Amino acid sequence: MAEFWKALGGGQRDAGIDGFLRPTNQLAIVPNTTPYTLPVESMLVEIVERFLG
What we know:
Blueprint: H1 2-7, H2 43-52
């Protein structure tokens, strides 16, 4: 998955001091979860809010 993210341009350069060069692609890895436990993961709300914000 990380290689796919890199192929879309993620993580290829420094975002710069103001974050202007930050890639639009985002990847979230939630440790100790599966597709079945992710919907009830407490961290999921924060991840989604940051993504949409």
